[in-house]
Amino acid sequence: MKPGVAIISSLIVLFIFASCEKETLNTGGWAKNVAFQKDVLPMFQVCTDCHGSGSNFDLTSANAYNSLIEGALVNITAPEESQLIKTLNGSAHSSYLNQEQKNIILGWINEGAKNN
Ligand code: HEC
User: Fold this and answer.
1) pLDDT (tens digit, 9 = 90+) per residue, 33-46?
2) Is the CB of residue 43 less than 8 Å from the CB of residue 97?
């Protein structure tokens, strides 16, 4: 094999590996088999001081699911575009949940945002 060909082949192989890795990061970061009641709802305990019952956006256990769905805050075709996620990443809210928790919420939205 000529050196030029060898270099190009290695670059192609590298490129293929690099693109695989990107795939895994994009979708693999989101949690799988997420249950709303067990996995998502408990995270909202830190929210209810401000988003309590009677507030415009009620995140207490009994009402959180309806608030999210009726407020159209989740986008199941593009989870990262959900208003819920955008708000959580915004400066006013960014300290409440860590990336691991957001990946659970993203996984839940990606799986259809079910009340499971
Ligand atoms: C210290 C008070 C406070 C806490 C705690 C808080 N929020 Fe908020 N949140 C607000 C205020 C005020 C607004 C309205 C202004 C805005 O959009 O930033 C808001 C708006 C929102 C919105 C946008 C609602 C809409 O209709 O567009 C979402 C979604 C949200 N909060 C989610 C959360 C979640 C989830 C948590 C907990 C992880 C949380 N917030 C914790 C004060 C708070």
Assistant:
1) 999 999 999 999 99
2) yes
Look at residue 116 and tell me if it is in a domain: no
C-alpha span between 15 and 52 (Å, rounded): 50
Q: pTM for the complete prediction?
A: 0.81
Residue whose Cα lies nearest atom 6 of ligand 1: it is: 47
- Is residue 52 located within the same domain as residue 4? no
Domain that holds residue 105: 31-110
CA 51 / ligand 1 centre spacing (Å): 7
Q: What total of structural domains would you count in the chain? A: 2
d(CA 30, CA 82): 14
Whether 2 is covered by a domain: the verdict is yes
